[in-house]
Amino acid sequence: MATITNTDTNAADSHPAPKASGYSLLATAISGVIAGSALIYLAYRVGPAPDIYPITYLICIFGYITGWIIAIISTPMNKYDETDLGKFTKLLGSFLTGYILSKCDKLLETILDTSNVFMTITGARLLLFSCCFGLTFILVFYYRRYKWRFNR
């Protein structure tokens, strides 16, 4: 009987992700609540007047929702998710690269202008958006990747 050897250099990528313990899942959730609470407090503190708070909170919520969507797309739960999310990702990718990026060039230049981005509230809002996006992405990705396997 002949034996087949795996010569694939990416053989390590084909192994399933390690299972997470209940403790690490709880620690991740608690860390997320603490960081999320700090972000909510910082969003309250950003800005010179209370009439600016709603816009700052909307930017934070947009960051949370964007992170959530990207994490869900990044971690399909089964073959159906993979197929359906793949179709959605292709459609969204076509829209973003074809239309949005061509229209947002000047907006991005203004937002990311290093000479004044952190001299105004724009820099703080950009950081809040990034932190909210990153926090939600980590929590949703971690839960979908490890918690799902932990419960099986």
The quaternary state of the protein chains shown equals single chain
Q: What can be said about the biggest beta sheet?
A: none
Overall radius of gyration: 20 Å
Distance between the termini: 36 Å
What descriptors fit this protein?
about 150 residues, mainly alpha, 5 helices, about 70% helix, disordered N terminus, transmembrane helix
What would you say this structure looks like, in words?
The chain has 152 residues and is mainly α. It has one domain. 72% of the residues lie in helices and 0% in strands. It contains five helices and no strands. The protein has helices at residues 22-45, 53-74, 79-103, 105-111, 121-151. The relative contact order is 0.18. The chain crosses the membrane at residues 20-43, 55-74, 117-143. Keywords: Membrane, Transmembrane, Transmembrane helix.
